[in-house]
Amino acid sequence: MIWDDQNVIVNVRNKGLVVVSGCSHAGAVSVLRNAQRLTGEQRLAGFIGGLHLTGGLFEPIIKPTVDAFVAAGVSRVLPAHCTGWKAVHQLARALPDAFVQPAVGTVITF
Q1: Model pLDDT for residues 98-109, shown as the tens digit of each residue
Q2: Count of beta carbons in the 10 Å neighbourhood of residue 34
C-alpha cells in the first residue's frame, strides 16, 4: 500500500470513470485498476495527472504502462508534472486520439 498516493475518481454518466491522480506512486495502471475495482465500472473516460514515469529508474516501465493504457481503452489522457518527457511522447504516439497536452486553462469535456 502506498499511503501518499491521492486520486479522485469521478463516474461520468454514460461515459465511465475519470481518474485525477496526484502522482500515481502506486503506478498509474494500478491506480486505474483500483478505480475500476472500487466502483465496479470498467469504462475509462479519462486519466488526468502524473504517471510518475520520469527518470532512469522508471523508464523501463514506460512501455508496459503505455501498452496497458492502450489495452484499457482510456478515452482521454492528460499527463501531468511527473510523467516525464519520454513517457509523454510515447503516450502521444500510442494514443493520438486520446492524448491531450494539458496546460493552465485546459478545459476538457467528457
Answers
A1: 999 999 999 998
A2: 16
